[in-house]
Design brief:
Elements: H1 3-8, E1 16-26, E2 33-44, E3 49-53, H2 60-68, E4 75-80, E5 83-84, E6 95-99, H3 110-120, H4 125-138, H5 154-166, E7 172-176, H6 184-201, E8 204-209, H7 212-218, E9 221-226, E10 229-234, H8 236-241, H9 246-251, E11 256-266, E12 269-274, E13 277-282, E14 295-300, E15 305-308, E16 314-323, E17 327-334, E18 337-344, E19 357-362, E20 367-370
Parallel strand pairs: 3-8, 3-9, 6-7, 7-8
Antiparallel strand pairs: 1-2, 1-4, 4-5, 9-10, 11-12, 11-14, 12-13, 14-20, 15-19, 16-17, 16-19, 17-18
Helix pairs in contact: 3-4, 3-5
Bound molecules: adenosine-5'-triphosphate.
């Protein structure tokens, strides 16, 4: 893509603010009210890529649709830039959407599909041609212009959908599970392509997905939703390394939950008793709601536990060892409680077999103490 195009596209990008937004649907079958989105606050900064992630039915699509204008909030406000868009129809919001289904016009060729939004906007023919050609080139669609959508692969069609979305230079790009129809390998490469494009153009973007690795890979910030509320938001690193609840820890990646008793603080470390042994865990910030001498839970990622035959914090017995090449996954019984441990680079580390007595040491930096 030429620098000139890069400079020009995305220039009108602006932030999005949701203030105390609620959406209540009346259920058609029972007539009862259902709160799909419950008083959420969210600020997407200018040029930022934010992903909404959460289980099915948590309110992700409804939130996206309220920004697009296809749904109106029951209460609260939606701002795009400095404009309250509560009463603004979708086509006047300066947004573009990319859908899972591509939503291309089957009777138009690729070039016409991409140029469509500019034609509707009644742009002069010369600028329309210039801009469409620039985006065709940018999206590596040169040579495909005269084909029709059904003559392209899924990945190529999604690239056309993306081209069609960016050509109108939207303030905000909204993605609704755009890669779900692609196979795993193509999905990964499209994901990287999409992120590179978003960064290059600096377009404020909101992305909805079920797929946690996709969310981790493409986002500046991940917002985890459950039952219509935001449970946690933060960079992919914060969400993975400092989950604020068991739900988030379990939803993003794998997690072990080790029950213990909180025995108090030692400076900035929490003293936690597990199976009669007290271990010290550094804690960032406050200890949430954990009470002294009350129950607590250590949240530990499988790759944040080291195994040794000789020494360590917690004794256990290997009940399963599965070799995957890049890693060995162990199940280690801590008393009656199975703990999953992943050891990467198995060529370089001590190996264990079913029945072996081992010690586990938690890599402190990656452990969270939760209620
Ligand atoms: P998924 O990942 O499965 O797409 P989601 O997180 O995007 O789920 P939403 O589509 O936002 O979830 O739906 C949230 C809740 O609101 C769901 O329980 C859904 O059944 C309900 N809902 C959505 N649209 C309507 C509607 N038009 N009328 C009634 N209920 C609705």
């Amino acid at each position: 893509m030429s620098n000139q195009t890069t400079d020009r596209l995305g220039k009108k990008s602006s932030g999005v603010i949701l203030k105390d937004v609620t959406k209540i649907f009346q259920q058609p079958d029972t007539g009862k009210d259902f709160v799909a989105v419950d008083h959420i606050n969210l600020h997407i900064q200018d040029g930022e890529m934010v992903t909404l992630l959460g289980p099915s039915g948590c309110g992700k699509t409804t939130t996206l649709r309220m920004i697009s204008g296809f749904e109106y909030p029951t209460s609260g406000s939606v701002m795009i830039g400095d404009r309250d868009v509560a009463k603004v129809p979708p086509n006047k919001r300066g947004i573009s959407m990319v859908f899972q289904s591509y939503a291309l016009f089957p009777h138009l060729n690729i070039w016409e599909n991409i140029a469509y939004g500019l034609k509707v906007a009644k742009m002069s023919q010369s600028e329309l041609v210039e801009r469409t050609n620039a985006v065709v080139e940018m999206m590596q669609l040169k040579g495909f212009e005269r084909r029709f959508p059904n003559q392209l692969s899924g990945g190529q069609q999604q690239r056309v959908a993306l081209a069609r979305a960016v050509v109108i230079e939207p303030s905000v790009l909204l993605f609704d599970e755009p890669l779900s129809n692609l196979d795993a390998k193509l999905r990964e490469s499209m994901r990287d392509e999409l992120r590179a494009l978003q960064k290059r153009l600096g377009i404020t973007s909101l992305y909805v997905t079920h797929d946690q690795s996709e969310a981790m890979a493409i986002s500046d910030r991940v917002v985890i939703m459950k039952d219509g509320v935001i449970c946690q938001e933060g960079s992919p690193t914060e969400i993975y390394e400092q989950p604020n609840s068991r739900f988030v820890a379990n939803f993003i990646g794998k997690a072990n939950f080790i029950e213990g008793t909180f025995r108090g603080m030692d400076g900035t470390s929490a003293l936690v008793e597990v199976g009669g042994k007290t271990i010290s865990i550094p804690v960032p910030g406050s200890m949430l709601d954990v009470q002294k001498d009350g129950p607590c839970c250590l949240t530990v990622r499988p790759e944040s536990i080291q195994l040794s035959a000789k020494e360590g914090q917690l004794p256990g017995r290997v009940s399963r060892a599965t070799y995957y090449g890049a890693k060995v996954e162990y199940e280690v019984m801590l008393g009656e409680h199975p703990i999953i441990v992943e050891v990467y680079n198995p060529q370089l580390t001590e190996r264990f077999a079913e029945g072996d007595e081992v010690y586990m040491t938690l890599i402190n930096r990656c452990v969270r103490v939760l209620r």
